[in-house]
Amino acid sequence: MSAPPAGARRAGRRCWVGCVRWQHEGQPIDGASREVLAEQAVSLLDVPVNKTSTAFTKPVDPIVGQAIEAWQQLRPAQPRRLDGKTNERVNLLFSVRAHPVAKNYIDRTLIPSLCEKAGVPTADIRGNITSHRARSTIASQLYNAKEPMTLFELQAWLGHRSPTSTQHYAKITPNTLTRAYTEAGYFSRNLRTIEVLVDRDAVASGAVADGEPWQHYDLGHGYCTYSFFEQCQHRMACARCDFYTPKDSSRAQLLEAKANLQRMLVSRSRSPPTNAPPSTTARQPWAPSSTASPRSPPPPAPPLAT
User: What is the pLDDT of residues 206-215, one digit of tens each?
Assistant: First the structure.
């Protein structure tokens, strides 16, 4: 069973004859054209002035346009009627004996009739099946689609003056939230890798052999120069460690001002081995030979300052 088209709920009662137009590949086409049956054909619905917006045009599913055109062929000839919103005499699309259908006709008569014909209940745990719920469902599906509408696109499609009204319809489904959280990759970026600054000048000048640090692990609040940072037992007490340099210190600022720094990502396994240093994303041929090899056991953890 097809739900009543969103936007054709109350304003739809005042739609005029000829409110549907067709496009194919961006060009207008006649409703009787074979191109209407093409997969890329788009049905455009002209929605009259209503309580939430001025008159606007919105794309709808082709089956909606075909259903409206089928009704126009069967609609009895009726005299024009004065539109209370625009003060124009128009041919109302949905009218009976020159009178517009009642405000509650869709919810009280049409939807129960369609539910009975389809063999489905007229209510569920949330209440009665109504045109407003159909509008909300369609809006949520468009917002949670594989290539979803943005909030402002949905606002234009629903005909809202303010995005605040649209937010009531733009409900994020658990699947969309799960997909967004997975694609964000928070843990993979923040818990399994850490950025390290490599001082290439210190390596090239041979200062490393004299004890000059050349690896500076970025902790966010400061830098750690301990080569076996991942095996450090005191990572929660960095402020008292001799290997720690706060970012707001002059030493850290001098480090960041160096021109020959290389930024790398160091992988951190969730269950690190107890006898191996962290592995970098790329092997550097200029690394000093005096550094420990991957098979060498790490030195004892650095002492804490008293």
Answer: 888 888 888 8
